[in-house]
Amino acid sequence: MRKILVAEDEQNIREFVVINLQRAGYETFEAETGDQALELYDREKGDFDVAVLDIMMPGSHDGLAVCKELRRKNPSIGIILLSARTQEMDKVSGLMMGADDYVTKPFSPSELVARVDAIYRRVALASDRRDSDTRDELLSGEFSLNLRNRSFRKNGKPIELTQVEFQIMEYFFSNPGVALNRGDILKHVWGAGYTGEEKIVDVNIRRLRMKVEEEPSNPQHIVTVWGLGYRWDA
User: In what order do the strands lie in the sheet with 180-181?
Assistant: First the structure.
């Protein structure tokens, strides 16, 4: 069963989210505060594929804090933030903390389920590759990307990546020296049917540079191609 953690303090919205995810075939677990969400995660021993978190929740852990803690506990879990239109900076902060995507309120059931489906497919693909016999490894200069155990190394030193970051790096490694536009990266990583904004690519690139580059403000590997997108140089 595909398991999802839903944390939302507004009961009507939470019930709306849960009902539609259950109709789509997901097993849902509900929490109305961030603290409850973390307790539930631990109680279930982290056995979740995706977490849907409202940014604004009462208690000592809001959605951003829960996102950061879940990402620390589990680099593989898919995380989607629910936000109001006025919470622009919170969206960026959430992505920088490791969220995979965000959905802006109000949203339609089909939009939410499509976003969750896309995240789940990414998580499931990673799990299938880990369980398969493939030992594929992509090399690029001082970097290596192991497709089986989803590991990334620089000069032999491991660097922890989220699923989204890993897929971006895999796309870069498969197209070294090629200028990739934001739309292509978005389509490849988030799926052809993704309805979100291209700026999600930029935020993830910023996060990757902080992990990959010696000087993130002066990148030598993930290079900006002005007016187009990005290029990977080993």
Answer: 180-181, 229-232, 222-225
Two tokens at 219? 């990148």
Q: Are 193 and 114 in contact (CB under 8 A)?
A: yes
pLDDT of res. 135: 55
Question: What is the CB neighbour count within 10 angstroms for residue 143?
Answer: 19
Q: Which two tokens stand for residue 185?
A: 């990266």
Give the H/E segment covering residue 229: strand 229-232
Give the model's pLDDT for residue 219: 96
How far is it, in rounded angstroms, from Cα 186 to Cα 149?
A: 24
Residue type, 220: Q
What digits encode the pLDDT tens for the residues 163-196? 889 999 999 999 999 999 999 999 888 887 777 7
Max CA-CA distance within the chain? 52
Q: Which two tokens stand for residue 141?
A: 């200069």
Nearest Cα to 189, choosing from 175, 135, 143?
A: 175
Dist CA 54 CA 80 (whole Å): 9
Q: Smallest Cα–Cα separation from 1: which of 50, 70, 64, 38? A: 50
Q: How long is the chain?
A: 234
Nearest partner of 100 among 87, 81, 117, 83, judged by Cα: 81
| One-character DSSP codes across 115-181 | HHHHHHHHHHHHHHHHHSS---EEEETTEEEETTTTEEEETTEE----HHHHHHHHHHHHSTT--EE
What's the pTM value of the predicted model, to 2 decimals?
Answer: 0.84
25: which 2 tokens? 């075939």
Backbone torsions φ then ψ of 151, nearest 5 degrees = -105, 155
